[in-house]
Every structure is written in structure tokens, then in C-alpha cells.
Write a structure and sequence with these properties.
CATH topology of the domain at 21-30 and 38-100 and 157-222 in chain B: Alpha-Beta Plaits
Oligomer: heterodimer
Mean pLDDT of chain B: 84
Largest sheet of chain A: 9 strands, mixed
Order of helices and strands of chain B: HEHEEEEHEEHHEHE
CATH class of the domain at 21-30 and 38-100 and 157-222 in chain B: Alpha Beta
Strand content of chain A: 15-25%
Strand order of the largest sheet of chain B: 8-1-9
Low-confidence stretches of chain B: 1-32
Distance between the termini of chain B: 46 Å
Structural class of chain B: alpha+beta
CATH superfamily of the domain at 261-369 and 480-549 in chain A: Dimethylsulfoxide Reductase, domain 2
Shape of chain B: globular
CATH topology of the domain at 261-369 and 480-549 in chain A: Dimethylsulfoxide Reductase, domain 2
Radius of gyration of chain B: 18 Å
Shape of chain A: globular
CATH class of the domain at 261-369 and 480-549 in chain A: Alpha Beta
Helix content of chain A: 10-25%
Number of helices of chain B: 6
CATH architecture of the domain at 261-369 and 480-549 in chain A: 3-Layer(aba) Sandwich
Chain lengths: 1033, 244
């Protein structure tokens, strides 16, 4: 029913429809006059009303600064999302309340033109003013959410006191208790709830007894205590030190596997590290064309705000054109930029087909970067002018049934001598390439370009051996389907595919492809790998205008230049199988016994050797008891029941049952959907109350470390010694109570071996600050007294001087006064190359993947990117199980520019965008008889929901797009009773729906399961089969 | 398929030169009430570069905090649209605020002289005089005013006059993530706003020019379909207090 002649303008719900101002009315005029007569609430100031007093005055002529003595400006970090931007916080000194937040002008995540560290704090304030219009060019911002989340600090739903549940789990009733009682009970255990004996953390720390004597590889019983945290917010090293090195459990995990993990895993395959998963971002400022697939610059992503600033500038003042491929149109596009930015809809979970189509076109038209790809090693690549290199020319054994089939041919296979002490097939056993004349030679011995496409039998040690080059295998994968077939899969017309490929290949290295959270489909790993391999074919890594990896951090933890924050006397190295089984199945007793019985596959449930720790799998694993059940779980602001698709509906009974999980402790400033089940909740610092040293997640080519420090007094209750209760004071006290190594007196050492205590958060973070200050060739500058005064760091001075050495404290103070330590932006490039380059080879063929077997099907995985349709664990394709006939629609999740999974409490965000109507295409709406604003019932194989509909052209046909961040059951959506106090009832916090309540279990798995990508182990939220019908209003 | 973004503007009818009276051409009429005015060498104005807006609402929320704007009211907001034309669908964002017009429609209708214009062009409401009758709210062609439910006075954007007077920038400008809001002195030929107006002469537009209010908030990249009342389907937004 698309009407090509008609213009449709639809105010979408992202903000502001019928507003009081700018659209609606003024209906209470008479009443207002009456109120005035009665003299109710007069304005504070005749002209400025209730506006804030300015934080300082700057003389526009002289630039002289006069601060408002009633306010404090401090530079610290936001935690309104995972970007962790540097911000400036404006505080009312008398009340200690945060008044407003904007950007830190030193921070590359917030400022358009970050100030160098040597700029004084005084001058940094002047740089924000209108004097000389410096504040325009020197703008440093906070986004809408960053501006709004301060309200959360004063939320009536905050947990400020330690609490213990009253009645059964999830009763919503709590008893405030002292932190001392809480720590005693969780350490000692006992009949804590009148439900029988519960083992405490002391008894559970059994470092010797195996969990299962028949399966010793699982490790000792201590592994049955796990710590599940949310975000790497610059505090996680202390939690890791506690649970792994001190307590001794292998089990710690974060939210990555239900965030953007598939993207990271696909990137890990490209960059050759599937555990740390390096990734690169396009250089928005210098690129000429960027293709965004499953990511939306300016709408979401990380770094959200910086990308927003950069895309806005690049599509206007800069030279960038871009296309966003996504099932849903978001703020990534703006009509005002006309053809500089375009949206192309795609079917969910088919990004890999798009990528393979583009590859096929590049191969067909010889439009890949041959010069980049054919360099056999780093030296030759650099000498020939390439800033990076890859393994496109490296040869793989393709001889059928050969024991090394799927492995790279190595120099030792040619009979070449290995360097002294080198292991055969180890890192120093070179790869092999075919020279132009066809001779085989070690890749590091080659002095010029090698053959790119090799598929032949060679004589190796007198035997014929079939070999193929990496790029040959990639080309074969790309050629498995025609562009027309790929087009049919992804729903993008052939001409558009050709146009995109042409455009991508028409800018040399100044074109790039970018992806992120949109990769979370049932085939997310191969989709992401395929998409990101386009960058390899463009040869754009490390090049100005291409792609780049992060410049890295001034590291705070680890051995450190001043203090060793890694090793300590008695530190444990945990052993065993992690809960999510992200290790090879083939090393398990189960595999050996099944192999002995003749049928090693399938495993009882999938293993994920090529994935990092998987928060998506933790709850299914612990409640299936496979590999083992947990006895105690510490949740630190993690919320898997809200965040993992398909999980909550399955596990709510299990997690509510203390027999299934005997001890559940939450550290959380709020009660979320998961911590609502806790036995105990320990309050935590929130936003500007907390410490931390954070590195950017991506997008910053220079070294950067953001400093977070309590610029306001934490609101939680205090420990007996005056420390605020929070993650740090809780874990430190817990460790000391349990007598664990690495905490308490003499737990830390400086580089000379002198001992220092770890009794308080400051002991850790300030010494970490010394490491940041002394990292790199040159130490950070010293703070002046004026810096200390103006920045509010003066408040920390007694602790700084007491904790640090005389040559350290002013440097650390300098970093706090500037909200971080940042390499100058001028050092981002050396000529046309990035200064901080990724120098290991990009993987066109990934041997680790190519030699791995799926633990369920026993099939070898493909070692190159390929089109792989979404499927379940046993290999059943999605559409074989849930047919298009029965489930004609597909759900996708998209990120909100305003809300996230924990921002619903910010009323001013809700005021802009109170709920999340599901986006549906007009053709689907017409078919179902649904009008804009109607309600529908959505049904998936494992869930259902009722939702309002926004009928939009900005969504792919057949797709229901659900904005993330709504549909809460906790965080205020349910009022809890704490002691005698009841939280306020506010149904607005429950508005809208949560896609994750509609997610799937894996129907081919037994027990608890969620549908996950078979390699990345990441939860599936893109392309969930569904159907819908009109509901009663 | 890709062309310079400024090109398309040439194809559209731009407002006749006379319709955009720039304030620096004709000095503002000084308010005669000495208590509320002072001479000024400035004339403040804003250019909104629409293509730089990402609709993140940082301006909206910063304004709310800076100016204690009550719930469900806005001194500024970014209206967000979806535009479907032919086979193409795009988002469109339009920042809205008081235009601090050169000929403000709100001033003559005020029965008590509460609304006035400073010599630097900023249109303000004198809260001590305002009786909350809302004539100005009705008179404003831009719906930029509201009756503040806490103070019961007419309320609207002040260009953060309290910050300007302190040598600072308006809150919305300081925190504009895309750099879409460019603010400055229209009487200073070297200012960014003046340079932009000169550079994009003929492309610069204002909202509802036919109203004759001579707005001093200028738009670069303003689609004419959005210059007046937007003909589209309403969003599903309702005031917070009506939610759930």
C-alpha cells in the first residue's frame, strides 16, 4: 500500500508530540490567575524565575574568571550508559546536590576539541564561556540521558541501607540490617531465613574438594561461588581480585553476552583474539564513506555521544557520506543532511548475506585492495606502504582427511629449521606462502608480495598436498551464492547491493564498515565476522580515514609503574571449567567417556570454546547443574533477568528457590529484576559518588583514562569506621572477615616491595591513580593549588597526601582535577597512519575457528566468513522449527537515544518518551487491520505481550521493532517494603514492553536454555519469530 | 547518488530576502522601562544547523535542569519526525525554542507590560508583573510559551539571560552534542552566527516567516514542510501525569 506520491510525516515517539508548549494547550488560564491572586509559590527572581545561579562569571573581554562560591564544578565520569564519558558536575555546596551535568572539556569522549592536560583548570572553565566564543568551538557536552540521570541519585527507589529479605525470595519485603550483621551472616551462614541451614561464604570456600570426583576438570567446590557484574566501569579489577585471586573461584562474568557480544566475537575472529576480542571503529572525521550495519551513529552505540558529535559534523562540514543498514530507522539519519546519510532497511539477522554479497561483488569486479592483501608479513607490508597486514596469502592444508586439514601449513612442515627453543606449530613456527613463481616459503622470509589466490596441489616433503590460500577460501565462500540469492535473503535489491559495493570500493582506504549491537542474531558470529571482513578487503586498518583500534589506556591496575595491583602474597590462580563452558568440550571427561562409547557428540549442552565468559549462559548452566550448580551468587548491578531474552520466564521459579541457589547476594543501588530475588542487598555508590578508572570502549585513537571520584558524598549508610557502604567497602570487609589474602594490612606493595594496606577504597583507587600518573614515557604534570581549589580536588587532599608519596600526590591530583589522563589529540596520527596501530595480522582465515567443532553437531566450523542462516544448537534452522507460515513476523530490539536498561527512573526522560510503542510497517498494519496507536497482542513461541503500535515507514516489512529500556517489573515498577517504609507506587515505571520477555528458549536443548549464537554464545534478540493480532484497546 | 548537502537547498524556494530581517540591520527598539533594560551593544541570536542535530534531547534536559522547568513543560525541545516520500524514509529533527523575535507577537498583548524585550533582543517575562493570563501564550505563533504550573507565570526560553549576563552560553548551546545550536552576537560581524548567515545567504530560513514576527532564531537546512504547522500524524506522546 505504499503510496509513492504522498508525503507522510509522522512524529515518531522518540520525543515530544503534543506538548504543553510547542503544540498543545493552556487550558487552565482562569485557575492560574486565581492562584496568582492567592500568591502561591512566587518566583524566586522576577526575570530568571527559578533558574540556577551561574556557576561562574567570565568577563567576556578579559576572560577573567570569578567562581560562584556557592557552587562547585568537578570533572569526573558519567555512568549513565557504558560509554563512561568525562563530564563536569555542578554541585550546590550547601546541600551537596548535583545541579546539572555537562561535558568535561579535557575528555575526548565529550569535547569537540579536547584541551591538553597542561591547560589549567581555570582556563578550562574560561574555555567554556562566550568570551571570544571559545565555548562554541570548545563545546563539551553531556547527552540527553547524561543530563537526566542525576535524578536517579535522589530517587525514592534507591537502596541506601543493607537489607535482608523478609519472607520468601521476591516477596518485595525487606528488613534493614547493619552491614556488620549482613557480613557476618553471609560469611558464617546458618539458618538465616528459618528455611534450614545455608552454607556461608567461609564454608563454601573449599579449595580442595572437587565438585565432582568423576569430573576433576570442573575444579574445586570454590567454583560454585560466582560473581556476576554488569559493566566494566573502572571498578571491576577490585571485584576480580576478590573473587578470583583472593576467594579462589574461576567464576566471574559481565553482561557482554547479552549486550553486543556477537559483534565483539566476530571482530575477535578478524583480529585473531577470540577472548579479548579487539575491535576497530571508523575514523568518522576523515573517512569519505562509511557503511553502518546494525549500528546507528547518533542514536546509540559506544561511544554514543562522541559518534553523535562526529557524524553530525562529518555529514555537514566534513566530507563523509554514509549509509545505515538496519531493520529500523533511528536517529542515525537526518533528512536535513539529504543524500549525505541514507537508511536502507534489511531483514533481521541477514547482515551476513549482505556482507557476502558485497564481497562477491568486490571479487567479481576486482575491487578489493589487492596491494594490502598480498603482503605476506608486517615488514614487507610496511615497507610497501601498508599500515597493517593480514593472512590472506597464508596457505591452509586442504588435503581431505589429512591430519592437519584446516591448519595453516607451517615452516616446519616444509622441513625448515625452527628458531632455537621454538616449539613445532607454536608461535614462532612461521606460516607459509606461495611466491609469485610458485615456490613455497616461510611468510616471514618472503620479501615481496605473495600469491593471493592459491588452490593447488604442491609437493611437500615429497608428498602431494592440497593447499589453498586464506583469500581463496574466502572467495569460495562468497561465491556460494549469487548476488541475486543474497539479495533474496537480506531483502536489499541487487542494484542497491551493487551500489553499496561500488561506493565502498570507490574511496581507497577512506571507506569503512561499522557494526555493533545489531549483530545479536542467531547467526551473529558469522554475520559480524562477514561484515567486519569487508574492512580487511578494503585494507583500511590503521589508516587515517579508515578504521582504528583504541589508543589504549594509561593502565591503572596490573603490575603498575608505582604499585603492584595485580600480584600479592597468597594470590590464587583459579582453576577449572567456567560455568558457561567457554572452553573446549574435547578436554572434558564427558567427551572422553562418550568418545570411548563411540559417540563423542553431542555434548549434554553446548560448549563455547571460542567465546569469552558468557552471562547469557550462567543462569541456565547453574540451574541445569551443567557443568555444576552454584551455591552462592553475588550480583553486582547485573540484571540478567531483564537483559537476557527468554530467560526470566524460565528461571523465575528456580531463582526463587533457595534449594536451587542457596545464597544470593546483590550489591546494587536499586532493586532490579534480578536483585529483587536476592537474600541480601548491599547498597552501592551511584554515578558521581563512586570511584573508578575507566578506559574508552572504542573510538578514541589516543591513550585515554577517565578518572571517576566521589565529587559528592555517597548517600548510602556508613560502615562503623565511616566508610560509605558500597562494593569496595563490602568486598574489602568481607575479604578481611574471611581472612583472604590480598586485602587488609600489607596487602599492596609498591615497586620497591614496601607494603601498604588495602582497607578502604582510597587505598586502591589513589594508588591506581599513581600508576596512571606514571604510565608511559612521561609522568602526568603536577596540580597547582589553584587547580585543587577550583576543581574541588582540595577535598581529597588529605587522603591524597596520606595515601601517596610526595612525588605522587600532586600528579594524581592533577588527573582528578582534569577528570582523567589523556594523550594529546595531536598525537593521534603519524602522517597518514594512526600512531597507535594494531600490528598483528588480520585473519581472513581463522585457524582457531576453522579447526573447532560444534560441541552439539560435531561438525567442523567454517574458518572463513560465510552466509550461515540462524539456527538452534542442534543445527535445526530457525525457520524449519518456527515456520514463516506460523510466525510471519520477526522481532528486533533497537536502542533508544534516551533510555537504557536502567534509566527508567529518570522522570525527565520518561516525560519526553514515556513508553515504547512497537514499530510496525504500514503494509503489515493494513494486513492486520491495525491503525497507528492501536494495541496488539504479540506472541512468540515462548512469550506474549500486549503493546501499543506505532505504524511507521521506518521499519522493514515483516518486522516488529521494540525499543529497549521499557517493560520493567522492578526499578520502581513494583513498590517494595523496607522495614516500616513503603516505596512509592508509580506505574509509569512499568510502562511499555521488554523484548526480552518475548525471547526464545532453544527448543533443541534440554532443561533451561536461551537461544544463543552457537559460536559467540550471545543471546539472540534480533529476528525472534512472532505473530501479532489486534487487541482490545 | 551522493551530493553536497547544501546543494538541495538551492532547489527549494527560499524566503525572499526581505522576509528575513536580521536584527543587526535595524537596532532593537529599546524598552523604555529603565528598571528592566539597559543599553547593550549585543543582539543575541541563534542559528540551528538542522543537519547537525541528532535528536538526543541534551538541550531539552539541560534546559530543564538549568531553568527548573516543571514536568510536561518545555522551554525548548527537539521535535522528531519520520518523513516518508516515494521509496525513501528519513528521520527529521527540529529544535524549537523562543525565537526572540524582532517583532514579538507576545509583547503587545500583555495587559500588564510583563513581557518585554531587552536592548540585546532577549524577550523576557517580568514575573513580578505577570498575572498568568496566558494572552502571550496564545499570541505566540510558535507555541513557545506556557504557564508554569509552579510559578503560575508565563514561562519560556530566556536564551539563559542569567548565563549570558555572566559571560556564559545558554545551557542548550553548551551541551549540544551535534553542535547544531550556534549562538552569538548578531551585531558582531565576526561572530559565528553572522558568519553563518553570510555564508548561507538565501538558504537561511525562519519558522513561520509570514507571521511577520522576524524571528532571530535562524535555521540552516529547514525543510519548508516544517516551517509552519507540520502536517502529519501525531506521536503517541501524552503528558507524564496521564501515563499508565
Amino acid at each position: 500500500m505504499t503510496d509513492n506520491t504522498r508525503r507522510q510525516i509522522l512524529k515518531v515517539a522518540a520525543a515530544g508530540g503534543g506538548l504543553a508548549a510547542f503544540g498543545a494547550g493552556f487550558s487552565h488560564t482562569a485557575e492560574r490567575i486565581a492562584d496568582h491572586v492567592l500568591g502561591r509559590e512566587p518566583a524566586q527572581d522576577a526575570l530568571s524565575g527559578r533558574s540556577l545561579q551561574p556557576e561562574f562569571h567570565v568577563d567576556p573581554q578579559s576572560g577573567e574568571l570569578h567562581v560562584n562560591p556557592e557552587q562547585q564544578i568537578s570533572y569526573t565520569a558519567c555512568i549513565g550508559c557504558t560509554t563512561l564519558c568525562g563530564v563536569r558536575v555542578r554541585i550546590d555546596k550547601a546541600s551537596g546536590r548535583v545541579l546539572r551535568v555537562a561535558g568535561n572539556p579535557y575528555s575526548p569522549l565529550s569535547a569537540q576539541a579536547p584541551l591538553p592536560m597542561k591547560t589549567s583548570v581555570r582556563d578550562s572553565y574560561v574555555s567554556l564561556s562566550r568570551a571570544g566564543e571559545r565555548g562554541l568551538a570548545g563545546r563539551s557536552t553531556a547527552c540527553g540521558r547524561g543530563n537526566a540521570v542525576i535524578e536517579q541519585m535522589y530517587s525514592p527507589y534507591r537502596v541506601l541501607t543493607p537489607m535482608k529479605r523478609v519472607g520468601p525470595r521476591h516477596s518485595g519485603q525487606w528488613q534493614p540490617i547493619s552491614i556488620e550483621q549482613l557480613i557476618r551472616e553471609v560469611c558464617e551462614g546458618g539458618d538465616l531465613f528459618g528455611e534450614g541451614h545455608v552454607d556461608g561464604l567461609a564454608a563454601l570456600r573449599d579449595l580442595k574438594t572437587p565438585i565432582d570426583a568423576e569430573r576433576p576438570e570442573l575444579g574445586a567446590r570454590v567454583n560454585q561461588v560466582g560473581l556476576f557484574f554488569s559493566v566494566q566501569d573502572g571498578r571491576e579489577s577490585l571485584a576480580r581480585r576478590f573473587i578470583q585471586q583472593a576467594y579462589g573461584s574461576i567464576n566471574i562474568v559481565n553482561h557482554g553476552a547479552y549486550c553486543g557480544g556477537a559483534y565483539r566475537s566476530g571482530s575477535g575472529a578478524v583480529f585473531g583474539d577470540l577472548k579479548k576480542m579487539p575491535h576497530a571503529k571508523p575514523d568518522y572525521t576523515h573517512a569519505e564513506f562509511i557503511l553502518f550495519i546494525g549500528t546507528a551513529p547518533g542514536n546509540a552505540g559506544n561511544p554514543f555521544k562522541q559518534q553523535g558529535t562526529q557524524i553530525a559534523r562529518a555529514r555537514t562540514d566534513g566530507g563523509l557520506n554514509y549509509v545505515v543498514v538496519d531493520p529500523v530507522l533511528t536517529h542515525a539519519d537526518n533528512l536535513a543532511a539529504r543524500d549525505r546519510g541514507r537508511w536502507v532497511p534489511i531483514k533481521p539477522g541477514t547482515d551476513g548475506a549482505l556482507a557476502m554479497a558485497l564481497m562477491r561483488w568486490l571479487f567479481d569486479h576486482q575491487r578489493f585492495d589487492r596491494h594490502f592483501l598480498e603482503q605476506p608479513n608486517q615488514n614487507v607490508a610496511e615497507a610497501s606502504g601498508e599500515a597493517a597486514w593480514c593472512n590472506a596469502t597464508h596457505l591452509i592444508v586442504t588435503e581431505p582427511k589429512h591430519p592437519r586439514q584446516g591448519r595453516f601449513l607451517r615452516a616446519s612442515d616444509l622441513g625448515l629449521a625452527l628458531p632455537d627453543g621454538a616449539e613445532r606449530y607454536g608461535e614462532q613456527d612461521a606460516f607459509v606462502v606461495a611466491a609469485a613463481d610458485g615456490t613455497l616459503l616461510a611468510h616471514d622470509a618472503a620479501s615481496e608480495a605473495a600469491q593471493l589466490f592459491v588452490d593447488a596441489s604442491f609437493e611437500v616433503n615429497g608428498q602431494p598436498l592440497k593447499l589453498a590460500s586464506s583469500l581463496q577460501l574466502l572467495r569460495e565462500a562468497a561465491f556460494e551464492q549469487s548476488i541475486e540469492q543474497y539479495s533474496a535473503i537480506c531483502g536489499i535489491p541487487v542494484e542497491t547491493l551493487a551500489g553499496l559495493a561500488h561506493e565502498l570500493s570507490n574511496h581507497g582506504k577512506h571507506a569503512a564498515v561499522s557494526a555493533q549491537g545489531g549483530m545479536m542474531a542467531g547467526n551473529g558470529f558469522y554475520n559480524a565476522w562477514s561484515v567486519l571482513t569487508l574492512n580487511t578487503l578494503l585494507g583500511n586498518l590503521n589508516v587515517k580515514g579508515g578504521t582504528f583500534v583504541n589508543g589504549g589506556a594509561f593502565r591503572y591496575d596490573g603490575p603498575g609503574p608505582r604499585y603492584d595491583l595485580e600480584s600479592f602474597d597468597g594470590a590464587l590462580k583459579p582453576k577449572g571449567i567456567p560455568l558457561a563452558r567457554n572452553v573446549p568440550y574435547e578436554k572434558s571427561s564427558e567427551f572422553r567417556s562418550k568418545q570411548a562409547a563411540g559417540q563423542p557428540y553431542p555434548a549434554q549442552a553446548p560448549w563455547y570454546p571460542n567465546a569469552p565468559g558468557l552471562g547469557s549462559e550462567w543462569l541456565p548452566a547453574m540451574f541445569n547443574g551443567y557443568p555444576y550448580p552454584l551455591k552462592a551468587l553475588i550480583l553486582w548491578s547485573a540484571n540478567p533477568l531483564y537483559g537476557v531474552p527468554g530467560l526470566a520466564g524460565q528461571v523465575h521459579a528456580a531463582i526463587a528457590d533457595p534449594k536451587r541457589l542457596p545464597l544470593l547476594i546483590a550489591i546494587d543501588p536499586f532493586i532490579n529484576e534480578t536483585s529483587a530475588y536476592a537474600d541480601y542487598i548491599v547498597p552501592d555508590a551511584l554515578l558521581y559518588e563512586s570511584w573508578g578508572w575507566a578506559a574508552p570502549w572504542g573510538g578514541v585513537p589516543t591513550k585515554a583514562t577517565t578518572a571517576r571520584w566521589p565529587v559528592v558524598e555517597p548517600r548510602a549508610d556508613k560502615m562503623a569506621d565511616g566508610q560509605p557502604i558500597g562494593m569496595e567497602s563490602f568486598l574489602i570487609t568481607l575479604a578481611k572477615t574471611l581472612g583472604l589474602p590480598g586485602f587488609g594490612a600489607a596487602a599492596l606493595r609498591d615497586t620497591d616491595g614496601n607494603p601498604y594496606p588495602l582497607d578502604r577504597a582510597e587505598d586502591w583507587y589513589l594508588r591506581a591513580g599513581a600508576n596512571v600518573a606514571f604510565a608511559g614515557k612521561q609522568a602526568a604534570p603536577d596540580a597547582s593549588d589553584d587547580d585543587l581549589q577550583l576543581s574541588g580536588v582540595e577535598r581529597l587532599r588529605p587522603q591524597l597526601e596520606a595515601t601517596l608519596k610526595p612525588d605522587e600526590w600532586r600528579k594524581v591530583a592533577c588527573i582528578y582535577s582534569r577528570g582523567g589522563r589523556y594523550q594529546p589529540q595531536s598525537e593521534a596520527y603519524s602522517g597518514e597512519w594512526n600512531s597507535n596501530r594494531f600490528t598483528r595480522p588480520l585473519q581472513v582465515y581463522n585457524e582457531t575457528i576453522g579447526c573447532a567443532r560444534d560441541s552439539m553437531t560435531g561438525q567442523r566450523l567454517r574458518g572463513v566468513p560465510c552466509w550461515s542462516a540462524p539456527h538452534f544448537a542442534d543445527g535445526t534452522p530457525l525457520r524449519a522449527r518456527y515456520t514463516e507460515q506460523d510466525w510471519p513476523l520477526q522481532l528486533i530490539s533497537y536502542k533508544s537515544p534516551l533510555l537504557n536498561s536502567y534509566a527508567i527512573g529518570a522522570s525527565r526522560l520518561r516525560g519526553l518518551h514515556p513508553e515504547n510503542p512497537v514499530a510496525m510497517h504500514p503494509d503489515d498494519a493494513a494486513r492486520l487491520g491495525i491503525a497507528h496507536g492501536d494495541f496488539i497482542e504479540i506472541e512468540t513461541p515462548d512469550g506474549h505481550a500486549r503493546s501499543r503500535v506505532a505504524v511507521r515507514y521506518g521499519v522493514q516489512r515483516g518486522v516488529l521493532a521494540i525499543e529497549h529500556g521499557y517493560g520493567h517489573r522492578e526499578l520502581g515498577a513494583r513498590a517494595h517494603r523496607i522495614g516500616e517504609h513503603s516505596q512509592p507506587e508509580d506505574a509509569r515505571l512499568a510502562a511499555g514492553i521488554n523484548l526480552n520477555d518475548l525471547g526464545l528458549r532453544d527448543p533443541t536443548r534440554a532443561g533451561y536454555s536461551v537461544w544463543m549464537d552457537p559460536i559467540a554464545g550471545t543471546a539472540v534478540r534480533q529476528g525472534i519469530p512472532a505473530r501479532a493480532r489486534k487487541a482490545a484497546a | 547518488m551522493l551530493q553536497n548537502r547544501r546543494d538541495f537547498l538551492r532547489g527549494l524556494v527560499s524566503i525572499s530576502a526581505g522576509a528575513i530581517a536580521l536584527a543587526f540591520d535595524t537596532p532593537a527598539q529599546a524598552d523604555t522601562q529603565a528598571a528592566r533594560t539597559a543599553p547593550s551593544t549585543h543582539r543575541w541570536g541563534m542559528v540551528v544547523d538542522v543537519a547537525k542535530c541528532i535528536g538526543c534531547q541534551a538541550c531539552t534536559v539541560a534546559c530543564i535542569h538549568e531553568n527548573a522547568v516543571p514536568e510536561d513543560n518545555f522551554r525548548t525541545i527537539v521535535s522528531t519526525y519520520e518523513v516518508h516520500e516515494g521509496e525513501r524514509t528519513d528521520a527529521y529533527m527540529l529544535a524549537r525554542l523562543c525565537n526572540h523575535c524582532e517583532k514579538p507577537a507576545c509583547i503587545p498583548v500583555c495587559p500588564v507590560g510583563a513581557t518585554f524585550q531587552r536592548a540585546d533582543g532577549v524577550v523576557l517575562v517580568d514575573g513580578e508583573r505577570c498575572v498568568g493570563c496566558a494572552y502571550c501564550v496564545q499570541a505566540c505563533p510558535y507555541d513557545a510559551r506556557f504557564i508554569n504550573p509552579v510559578t503560575n507565570k508565563a514561562d519560556k526560553c530566556t536564551f539563559c539571560a542569567h548565563r549570558l549576563d555572566a559571560g556564559l552560553l545558554p545551557a542548550c548551546v553548551e551541551t549540544c552534542v551535534g553542535g547544531a545550536r550556534i549562538f552569538g552576537d548578531l551585531r558582531d560581524p565576526q561572530s559565528s552566527v553572522r558568519r553563518l548567515l553570510a555564508e548561507h545567504q538565501g538558504e537561511i530560513k525562519v519558522l513561520k516567516p509570514e507571521q511577520g514576527t522576524v524571528p532571530q532564531v535562524f535555521y540552516l537546512g529547514l525543510d519548508p514542510r516544517f516551517a509552519g504547522k507540520v502536517d502529519g500524524e501525531a506521536a503517541l506522546w501524552r503528558p507524564s501525569h496521564q501515563e499508565a
